[in-house]
Amino acid sequence: MLSGVVPAVLPLVVLVTVAGLAIGSFLNVVVWRVPRGESVVSPPSACPGCGQPIRPRDNVPVAGWLLLKGRCRDCAAPISARYPLVELGTGVLFAVLAVRFGFDPVLPAYLYLAAVGLALALIDLDHHRLPDVLTLPSYPVAVLLLGLAVLAGSESGDPIRALIGGAGMYAVYVALRLAHPAGMGFGDVKLAGVLGMYTGWLGWGAWTVGLFLGFLIGGVFGIALIATGRGGRKTKVPFGPFMLLGALLAVLVGERLASGYLTLTGV
Hints:
Layout: H1 2-33, H2 63-67, H3 82-101, H4 107-127, H5 132-135, H6 138-151, H7 159-179, H8 186-202, H9 204-227, H10 240-265
């Protein structure tokens, strides 16, 4: 099936991938500055070692890091490989979503989710927090982008179901937070509503899979930590990345997984 689909959207995939690489470069700035309460637009990016501004030619996503061989042009301080990996990862995510949605007007909504989700996952891994400055604006942005998709003729989802899904997943996480406050941060609760809208748009199967997979992946990771001696039952692990990964898988294959499960169980 994909052999026929991919060539049809290949120009879109290429365009979206290039945009993803550029946005990934910006996400590196977001991930570094937002937790520190700094502006993401000024001052221009500079080497943390010598303070010299990054030259425009060195800011080319992925290629700039490769040409510099992972070191600052001025002081030769090492530049983390995570920078090009974030850029490349964003490009890949954008490409996958372009294949998934093609020319459907809802594509920009899910590209936004991929970008903000990647930034939130990395910040949560680094600082164990999901900043309100990223999660809270994602609610009106989701409503706006999904609403524009409806106006543009998208038939890939249901806006009412998206709103109900957002409220429903938020309510589930609120209940879990009240039942066990130490086991879940309120940042996770606020993120849940956003993910509920995007998965709910696609169907209740995707919504359910997104909710379930977050806990499943997180649980498997926790068991692996204990089994390998790298953590214990009280080890604090950021849950946001698991929520986001579960939602991504739900967006890509959630409805098919839910349908296959119902067929298998005969429900």
